Amino acid sequence: MSPWRQARPELIIAGVFTTAMAAAGLAVAGWPGVAAVTTGAAAIALLVVRGLAPRPAAAASRQARESDGGTRSITGYSQRRFLVVSGLSNGAFYEADLQPLLEHLLAARLAERHGVNLYTEPEAARLVFVRTAGDEALWRLIEPSRTAPASPHGISRRALARLIDRLEHL
User: Fold this and answer.
1) Are residues 110 and 163 in the same domain?
2) 109: phi > 0 → left, psi -120 to 50 → alpha, else beta; which?
C-alpha cells in the first residue's frame, strides 16, 4: 500500500483548509489575496515534504557522526592517557584513579569469562587470576582488599604492561 494512500485523510484536511484560506483571501484582498494564500500554502507544503523525505545514506551518517560529538572520542582518549601517565608517576594518583579502573576491568573480565565475582568471591578470583609467581605480584597491585599502597612513584611501566597483558589473556 502506498504511503500517500495512508495519508489521504491528512491530505484532504490540508486541501480543505487551503481552499478555505484561499476563499478568505479572495474575500478580503481579491486575487492578490488568493495568490498570497496559495504561495504560503505551497511554501509550507514544501517544508513539510522536505522534512518528511528520507535523507540519503551519506548525509544521514555524516549527520550522525557530527551530532555524536567527534571530539568525544579524542577527549576520552586524552583522559585515559592522562590517567595512565599520572598513575605511572604518582602513587597516590594510581591508588585513587588508575587502580580502581584496572580493578573494574578485572571484575568485568572475571565475570564475563569465568563467572566469578571479584567482590563476593575474592579467593576464587585470585585463583583464576594467579597462574605464576609473577601473577601473584600483579594481584597485589590490583586486588580490591589490599592495604599496602603502591610505590610512592606509582606503578612501573613494566608492571602496568604485564598487568594489562594478563587482563587481556584472562
Assistant:
1) yes
2) alpha
d(CA 130, CA 42): 73
Q: What is the pLDDT of residues 35-70, one digit of tens each?
A: 999 999 999 988 887 877 766 655 555 555 555 555
What is the grid cell recorded at 16?
Answer: 480543505
Look at the chain and report how many structural domains it folds into.
Answer: 2
Let me know whether 86 and 154 are in one domain.
yes
pTM for the model: 0.53
C-alpha cell at 142: 590490583
Distance CA 43, CA 76 (A): 44
Q: How many helices (H) and strands (E) does the chain have?
A: 10, 0
Element holding 137 (H helix, E strand): helix 133-142
CA angle 28, 29, 30 (to 5 degrees): 105
In terms of domains, do 78 and 140 share one?
yes
